[in-house]
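INFO  loader      accepted 1 record
INFO  loader      residues=323
INFO  predictor   begin
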Amino acid sequence: MIKLKGLTVQQCGELLPDNLTLLGYRGSIAHDMYVPKSDPDSIDDKDLMGVYVGPIEHYLGFGRPEVKERFIEDWDAVSYELRKYIRLLLKCNPNVMSLLWVKSNHVVYEHPLGAKLRANRDIFVTKAAYHSFTGYAYGQFKRMTHFNQAAREEMERLEAIISSHGVDLGELNATQEQRDTTVEVAEGPQSLGSQIDAYKSLKSKYYSGGYMGAKRKELVKRFGYDAKNAAHLIRLLRMGIEFLGEVELHVSRADADNLLSIKRGEWPFEKVKAEAERLFRLAEEAYVRSPLPPKADMQRAEQLCQELICEFHGKRLFDENQS
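INFO  predictor   done
INFO  writer      dumping tokens
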């Protein structure tokens, strides 16, 4: 059983799936940018990513869930069934790729098959990284630039309505009676439930993440933009540019101090925006010059997937009598 600091054995069992082959840190810890809870402005979870092999029924039956995600205390763990994970790797998903390049001291658990997966990471080194890294970065850019004064005022209006009816803004667990309560708003009478749903939608859009959502909101108000989004944005673009030119994913960041200064809100919004626009241009140039193949070798990827699943379950890849 894998033991995580601060969690009981039972909590670890709830957080992580069975049949793990690989487990490592992701997010701020993997990037050497973790801000501990002792810091008053900390908004970081302890993020983990795992890869597991499904039970044999998953492959011979009608399938089973492909993703397990849990939040317990300040731990945020997401784990992918192997076949699902490899499909994401083939798309050069930045989040899942990082697990194959994290430093050894950021690997929490590695089954021999997990080591084999990491040893074959070259399969997934392709120019498709340009589209995935810049695509994710653009999503962060849009979130950062679209959280304007109007959005902040709308959230504050909804907070005032919801809290005035005794609903906790952190939990938002209103009873049906509370949800059915009629409230007067500018558009006319509305149910409190509709206001709660509108607030949840805005909260998900701008403050998605773990248990630090409320604290992150306060920091957005202080800085005038989401500094954590900004740090993600700049990091993703730099990592993508490096990968396209160096064929190496630098998960542990040599520029961690610089990125942390962005994360702490020390960069004015316009400076972040200008740097992002510069990096988007550099990423396009890196894509044109990149020596990487345009797409992955699907046959190698499929062969690796089959081998790992069969080896885990002690099955032969092909029947001896198969011609």
